[in-house]
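WARN retry 2 of 3 for item q-0093 after timeout on previous attempt; input resubmitted unchanged.
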Amino acid sequence: MQTNKQLVDWIQLINCENVGPVTFHKLLETFGSAEAALAELPRLAKYKLFPRNKAEEELEKAQRKGVHILSLQSTEYPKNLRHMADAPPILYALGNLEALKNPVSLSIVGARNASINGRKTASKIAYDLTNAGVMIISGMARGIDSAAHKGAMYAKAQKGETIAVLGTGVDVVYPSENKALYQQICEQGLVLSEFLLGTEAQTSNFPRRNRIVSGLSLGTLVVEASLHSGSLITSRLALEQGKDVFAIPGSPQDARAAGPNKLIKEGAVLVESADDILETLNLNNHHCLTQYIDNLEKNVDIPLQLKKVETTSQEKLPLCEYINREGIYVDELIRISGLSASEVSLQLLELELNGKIERQPGNKVALIK
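OK item q-0093 returned
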């Protein structure tokens, strides 16, 4: 467990000029500790030390405001972020830290100038997923983000949890119109940020925020977004992190549907309801979801995606044993079979030529009825 002095070292180092998360980790690896890195930094002309007294004041300010400061060495630090190359060394958290313990999470993002239908859809899906045990994560922006947070908190008899990742300090409400929403999230869920307390909204902060939104989640759902929307940045980051990407289709006449429609063309899972997401994540069976969370809490070593078929032998089942008559996504087959993408493709081709399976829209296959 870190001492206050060690935590101040971390706060000081990550806030030094030209030190970002990747550089921070390299300095730590090179010198062994934040303290040693700070001692060597003045010899490197590229870097400028963050004032020690300001780092100490930051810790004191956080303690006064009831803000938790989580470093990568904290037991409460989110497991989903630990293996990212640019994982934030420091996270500020305000609210209920228990929200970080739910391993099953989905981020919902989209347009700020969202349509009424878009907001309703985001809210309904967030509501249904929360009731199914999935933690909803978003960025507390106006529009789709806000609707997702509200839907999540209205679930589970209006006591649902949600996590908001901010592009400001954790103590700064942005946009200001979301003050009531911010307060409710602090009470029912958790607000996170990697930025110093008091940091105001800056354009450059939001792409950095987005990698945390996607990093915390098993997948990302894009509801409405233009082709140049920051939501597409979040979905790209999710793909780079090996996560699932989901999208709500929309009319070609609506510019807000251009982003999701493009994602679907590129292979994102088309979503009409929460069930589509739960099916892809293999979590639509509530008993399995409960067992999955229970196993993780007991530190049982199981993959992130649940397997529909378990075998006790080392021999892999024939691929057709994983396929049902309703259809299954090819990506899911790769996950649960343990086979490579090329092996799955070859076996699917053979099954199709033998008339045992048929292709379905959205890169799915099904047993022929």
